[in-house]
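Incident review: delayed structure delivery

Summary: a single-chain prediction request sat in the queue longer than the usual turnaround. Root cause was a stuck worker, restarted by the on-call engineer. No data loss occurred. The affected request and its eventual output are reproduced below so the record is complete for anyone auditing the incident later.

Affected input:
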Amino acid sequence: MALFLWVIVPYLCFAIFIVGHFWRYRYDKFGWTTRSSQLYENNLLRWGSPMFHFGMLGVLGGHIIGLVIPKVWTDALGISEHWYHVIALAGGIPAGLIALAGLVILVYRRRVTGPVFSATTKMDKVMYVFLAAAIVLGVWNTLASGLFHVGGDYNYRDGVSLWFRGVWTFRPDADLMADAPWSFQLHALVAMVLFALWPFTRLVHVFSAPVGYLTRPYIVYRSRDARPGQGTGSRAPQRGWDKPTLQKK
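Output delivered after worker restart:
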């Protein structure tokens, strides 16, 4: 069972994630959108959307530090295990709670606003359940391991993190996850299912984020000068505020 859950399922979900996005982009380009609903309701959206997105950025950063960066690196920087957990609590808990609060606002808005609710697909509804479960379990695991020490002094950096990096190097150790507390195992399973659902929900818009707007000029000026080979005769180009003049034949 451990081999199936922690070796086969991760690669199966990852394959669905890749192939699903390819299929969605190939056959459903029109649906590759968040289906913007700001026109229908804006008061809840302007609070819920920034809270959720900025909270998730913090959650993503915390996962990168906890799962991707090896423990020996932080030890080499002189960060003790105590201070590592203090930093994780100080950054992870607020980020998770903000993301969860934003998600609650967005789901509430989607439920009570008629046109927005009508545009919500069944797959999106399933996705919201798994997304909320992943956030709640992540917050609980941070509190349980770093503050309450529920289930003993389990250090996920010596178990879950090693398994996670092993997945990417094609050497996952199923025993590492089998020995983890049930909440860590459930969090990992929910996250993998969420990634499998990703291509079939509105989450695809993550890969269409308007990053270019960060470097885009505020105003785009267009020259009215004639291009080479497209002369305008002896007349100077007319300015936009001049009255149009009739040319005599």
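Verification: Residues 74 and 80 are 8 Å apart (CA to CA).
Action items: add queue-age alerting; document worker restart procedure.
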